[in-house]
Amino acid sequence: MKLYKALATAMVATAATMAAMPAGNAAVFYDWRNYNEAGGIHDTHGDWDVHHLGDMNDRVSSIRSYGERYVAYQDENYQGFSFDINYRDFNSLEGFYEGRNWWNGDWNDKITSLHRKK
To answer: How distant, in Å, are the alpha carbons of 7, 67, 70, 95, 113 from that of 45?
Structure first.
């Protein structure tokens, strides 16, 4: 009986997690840290490339990758400094300094374009 109860609990938790994930392959980029949607979001909906984030340009503060691999670029059309998201979530880009030849402070509010990797 305990095993049945544990399995039932695990199935409910899994279903709740799956319901919260976006449909299809996607990554979500949030204007505020801690995945707060109040400031705005950009959901890739599985798009391979986003050459310019539009209203979210230079406003991304947190990222949920949902298992996707993206390269984030400082400039439009996949130019400038970049870093690999590689399946990672970032609850805050404040204080995150990783990237190729990156020297310009942290990545908070600096992402302009995205390329999805296969």
So the answer is: 31, 13, 13, 27, 15
The structure's pTM equals: 0.72
Distance CA 68, CA 26 (A): 7
DSSP 3-state of 64:
strand
Residue 88 has pLDDT above 60, yes or no: yes
Domain ranges of the chain: 24-116
Residue 29 half-sphere exposure, CB side, CA atoms within 13 Å? 29
> 29: which strand partners?
42, 63
To the question of domain 24-116 being in CATH 3.30.2350.10, the answer is no
